[in-house]
Design goal:
The complex is a heterodimer of chains A (113) and B (544). With 113 residues, chain A is an all-alpha fold. Chain A folds into 2 domains: 17-74; 75-113, no CATH class. Chain A has helices at residues 3-12, 20-40, 48-68, 76-102, 107-110. Chain B has one domain (27-513): Cytochrome C Oxidase, Chain A (Up-down Bundle), CATH 1.20.210. Helices cover 66% and strands 0% of the residues of chain B. Chain B has helices at residues 25-29, 34-62, 73-108, 117-139, 153-157, 162-189, 202-234, 247-281, 288-301, 317-345, 354-377, 379-385, 389-419, 425-452, 466-496. The chains are: A mainly alpha (113), B mainly alpha (544). The complex binds protoporphyrin IX containing FE and copper (II) ion (CU).
Chain lengths: 113, 544
């Protein structure tokens, strides 16, 4: 692609400008969510402890990626790259847990204290 | 591939090329020319290759005799650790991508440079800073954990400089991420007009696949080594069972990167072989799309098999079975490549030039390495040969017999373009032969040793293993000579070699359609591509 083509492409997808207001709003939302995580940590929700903590973390990460990192307004190629990265993380988790989840299946290992 | 201008119209040796436009240390250390950065990398990795080789020499000398007489066991542990760390992280991973890839990718796609020239220079500096940390550790007493840094040894027991070494590798990882990123963006956005994805040379395809691994895998090793450091310094229980961690988790994280990393080493070499085989058989590659997609398939499938390093680690046998099955899948795209190269040579007009000799070496040795990989991926067999010399032989067949042969083949093939000089063909063929003989003498006996039960990573062994070990050490000396000869004649040719024409091999690659050595901007007139990459096939063109 030569210079003029690059320019043509850029004028098709002009850089989106995020207003300072939305930045501040996201920032406040992140602070509120952080506070929530801290507060919830003092309440024992049993098995839900991890779920809630990870859920809040997920929302925060999504906000950062979509707004701070401008993915909401990015090209499809950029989105594919984000999805690809998450998919690779999923591979790491899925195959690692295929070990942790099945270790106890073998009778001999079940005898562990 | 045919470009719109005629190469013969160019002067044989242009007055201005990337090597002589500017002189002085500053013009090199601050360059943004991808070709000069490639040479910076070449100098650095050559240093590490010989340093790693020195450690290997000491290892082989110790193993000449059954008793542990040359070095103490602790020193021996440090030697094989530093050999592995230096060779893998500071030589093989950057080797072909950072030198040949850096030099050639912009030229092969008809661009002036990579997409981010400053980032490219930065990647070299990051590599040097990382190397400095690791070298500090080497000089101040070394590390003895093996290049694999297994926990809890590395976090709770080893008393070498684990953290400094790990920090060095951590930092160097970023240089590899930046290189990968740069290649991906360049290949997406800077192809010459007419250069569609399926007109890309296979070297570019294999580097695209390699870059994906670099970008997706390297962050994981970085985080893992960081975790080792955190556990070692702050005793946070991540991997050490005594602190509530899980040591097998370390192996999962480590091999999630390090198995794909073996493909960072072999895929670029496969790219070199594809170019060399077509050029010196004077035939179009057989099954272009298969070879191109095989690279991507290897990159993706390579991420699904890491558990084959952990069959006897305490990993669940059920996970082991899955990893075993998935490992067999990777062999398919690898085999596709081997078959397609042979099919390309079939009825070709083969010339026995040095790069082609290395390509032959690669194909044979990679096949042996890959097939023994399948033995190892077979769960039951691996229980027997795990952590024996069989493993050592397997990966050296691929990394030394495959990747380094590919690297040397590529260095010879593109040396006229890089330096503007021809290397002495007779010496080069002789050295290729020496490398092949030395290699097999070094590593074939190790298959036998491992099968007979000699474990890896010990400095002493039972006397009945001595004959095979003596063969291996003898082979290593021959191999060493085979590596020193090219060093000498490459350096010699810089001054005394014949001037290289633009296209000494009559290749159709775009990089050959400009002068040797190329001007800083690569092509005086930006090329336009009008055809497929390997247009050799018409009968009338076949010349002996
Ligand atoms: C055809 C595909 C391959 C298969 C199925 C395969 C399989 C294996 C298996 C199962 C092991 C573990 C053996 C053990 O520790 O008990 C292993 C080790 C190893 N392989 Fe491969 N391999 C393949 C290709 C490669 C390639 C292309 C490379 C390098 C470029 C490579 C480098 C290594 C290394 C470095 C180790 C040993 C790591 C260590 O423990 O230090 N392999 N391979
Ligand atoms: Cu592996």
């Amino acid at each position: 692609m030569n210079q003029t083509e690059i320019q043509a492409r850029e004028s098709l997808h002009p850089e989106h400008i995020v207003s300072p207001k939305s930045y501040v709003a996201v920032f406040l939302a992140l602070l509120v969510l952080t506070a929530t995580t801290t507060l919830v940590a003092f309440v024992d929700l049993g098995p839900w402890n991890t779920v809630v903590a990870l859920g809040i973390a997920f929302i925060k990460a999504t906000l950062v990626v979509l707004i701070f990192m401008h993915i909401r307004w990015s090209s499809n190629l950029t989105r594919i790259i984000i999805v690809g990265g998450l998919f690779w993380l999923a591979i790491l988790l899925a195959l690692t847990f295929s070990d942790f989840a099945t270790r106890g299946w073998l009778p001999i290992l079940r005898m562990r204290p | 591939m045919a470009a719109e201008f005629i190469p013969e119209a160019e002067p044989l040796h242009p007055r201005d090329n990337y090597l002589n436009v500017r002189y002085g240390v500053g013009s090199w250390l601050l360059t943004r020319d991808h070709k000069r950065i490639a040479l910076l990398y070449l100098a650095s990795i050559t240093f590490f290759f010989f340093l790693g080789g020195l450690f290997a020499l000491l290892i082989r000398l110790e193993l000449l005799t059954p008793g542990g007489d040359l070095v103490q066991s602790e020193t021996y542990n440090k030697l094989f650790t530093m050999h592995g760390v230096v060779m893998i992280f500071f030589f093989l991973i950057p080797s072909i991508p950072a030198v040949l890839g850096n030099f050639l990718i912009p030229m092969m796609i008809g661009a002036k440079d990579l997409a981010f020239p400053r980032l490219n220079l930065l990647s070299w500096y990051i590599y040097i800073v990382g190397a400095a940390f690791t070298m500090w550790a080497v000089v101040h007493g070394g590390v003895d954990t093996g290049w694999t840094f297994y926990t809890p040894l590395s976090t709770a027991a080893a008393n070498g400089h684990v953290v400094a070494t790990a920090v060095g590798i951590f930092i160097t990882g970023f240089s590899s991420i930046l290189t990968g990123l740069n290649f991906i963006v360049t290949i997406h956005t800077m192809r010459a007009p007419g250069l569609t994805w399926f007109r890309l040379p296979l070297f570019v395809w294999s580097h695209y696949a390699t870059s994906l691994i670099m970008v997706l895998g390297t962050p994981v090793i970085a985080v893992t080594l960081l975790m080792v450091g955190v556990e070692r310094i702050f005793h946070l229980g991540l991997f050490d069972p005594a602190l509530g961690g899980d040591p097998v988790l370390f192996q999962h994280l480590f091999w999630f990167y390090s198995h794909p990393a073996v493909y960072i080493m072999i895929l670029p070499a496969m790219g070199v072989i594809s170019e060399v085989v077509t050029t010196f058989s004077r035939k179009n590659i057989f099954g272009y799309r298969f070879v191109a997609f095989a690279s991507v398939a290897i990159a993706v499938l390579g991420f699904l098999v890491w558990g084959h390093h952990m069959f006897v680690s305490g990993q669940s046998v059920y996970a082991g079975m899955i990893f075993s099955l998935l490992s067999f899948l990777v062999a398919i795209p690898s085999a596709i490549k081997v078959f397609n190269w042979t099919a390309t040579m079939y009825r070709g007009s083969i010339s026995w030039r040095t790069p082609m000799l290395y390509a032959f070496g690669f194909i044979g040795l990679f096949t042996i390495g890959g097939l023994t990989g399948l033995f190892l991926a077979t769960l039951g067999v691996d229980v027997h040969v795990h952590d024996t010399y069989f493993i050592v032989a397997h990966f050296h067949y691929i990394m030394v017999g495959g990747a380094i042969m590919g690297y040397l083949g590529g260095m010879h093939y593109w040396w006229p373009k890089i330096s503007g000089k021809m290397y002495p063909e007779g010496w080069a063929r002789f050295a290729a032969l020496i490398v092949f003989i030395g290699f097999n003498l070094t590593f074939f006996p190790q298959f036998v040793l491992g099968y007979l039960g000699m474990p890896r990573r010990y400095h002493a062994y039972p006397p009945e293993f001595q004959v095979l070990n003596v063969m291996s050490t003898a082979g290593a000396s021959v191999l060493g000579v085979g590596y020193v000869i090219p060093m000498i004649y490459f350096a010699w040719s810089m001054r005394y070699g014949k001037n290289a024409p633009a296209n000494p091999w009559r290749s159709t690659g775009l990089e050959w359609q400009t002068t040797s050595p190329p001007p800083t901007e690569n092509f005086p007139v930006p090329p336009v591509v009008t055809s497929e990459p390997y247009v050799y096939a018409t009968e009338s063109e076949v010349v002996g």
